[in-house]
Design a protein that fits this description.
The protein is of the alpha/beta class. It has 11 helices and 5 strands. The chain has a 5-stranded parallel beta sheet with strand order 2-3-4-1-5, with helices on both faces. Helix 4 packs parallel to helix 5 and helix 10 runs antiparallel to helix 11. The longest helix is centred in the last third of the chain and has 22 residues. It is elongated and about 60 Å long. The two termini are about 25 Å apart. Bound molecules: zinc ion. Zinc ion (ZN) binds next to helix 3.
Length: about 250
């Protein structure tokens, strides 16, 4: 299960960890964290947010149950003091309040220690999402109080066919896929397509079509060993997405 799938599962099951620490050097990590926060606060409890309830509508516009620390530069003790004030009052619209701390590697030591006080005994409704580019600058007590998800960057070798499949030339490209014999290469293409779909979902918000396509591509990966005809599988999985969203 990758990080995105894990986060989706906890939202579906409503088992949101008190603190989720996402470690990634990818720029997209902020978007992922924001969508996750939106989903936690969604009044309909739709993973990644329904986009329709009041909480989702105001999410990007000073949501009173959402606080974002670390948008720029270092994280200072004053930011954490503000957090304590935020934490005291009960949520306005949902069952939860969310504090997002991005670039936690820039947190000054005294700020880390102050954060720990809230993290050790948070009010039941308060959830933390912390992102950092590595674990090395995060104090161990914060790590041990969090569910840690590490997102590794996939190797840069992007298969040339992947972007072609994710474009208007989908239908003319798809037959070429059966000329590829190497299973590793096919896996690489599927990974690349999954990554593109995940990006599409981050831009559009949760979408059942895209979610199902990601799940089907993961199943396809497992079926590769059986010598399936990949072009046909991809045609049925991706054509609805391409027709509708690309
Ligand atoms: Zn919503």
């Amino acid at each position: 299960m990758n990080a995105r799938e894990f986060l989706e599962k906890v939202q579906i099951n409503q088992k949101i960890p008190t603190s989720t620490l996402i470690v990634s050097t990818k720029k997209d990590v902020e978007k992922l964290a924001l969508s996750y926060a939106k989903g936690i606060l969604c009044e309909k409890k739709t993973p990644w947010g329904c986009g329709e309830c009041y909480s989702c509508k105001i999410f990007y516009d000073k949501h009173p149950d959402f606080m974002w620390i670390g948008k720029e530069n270092s994280i200072k003790i004053d930011d954490i003091r503000e957090l304590s004030n935020f934490a005291i009052l009960k949520p306005n619209y949902s069952d939860y309040k969310v504090c997002l701390i991005t670039n936690a590697q820039n947190m000054l030591k005294e700020a880390s220690n102050a954060l720990l006080k809230t993290l050790e005994e948070p009010p039941i409704y308060l959830k933390f999402i912390i992102t950092a580019d590595s674990l090395s600058n995060i104090i161990p007590t914060i790590i041990s109080r969090s569910i840690v998800l590490e997102i590794f960057e996939r190797k840069a070798s992007k298969h040339f066919i992947c972007d072609k499949l994710f474009s208007k030339s989908f239908y003319e490209t798809i037959p070429q896929i059966d000329n590829i014999k190497d299973i590793k290469e096919k896996e690489e293409i599927l990974d690349c397509l999954i990554e593109n779909l995940e990006k599409l979902m981050l831009n559009k918000g949760f979408n059942e079509d895209i979610d199902n396509a990601i799940k089907s591509l993961n199943t396809t990966k497992k079926a590769l060993q059986r010598g399936i005809r990949l072009s046909l599988w991809l045609l049925s999985i991706l054509s609805p997405i391409v027709d509708k969203y690309i």
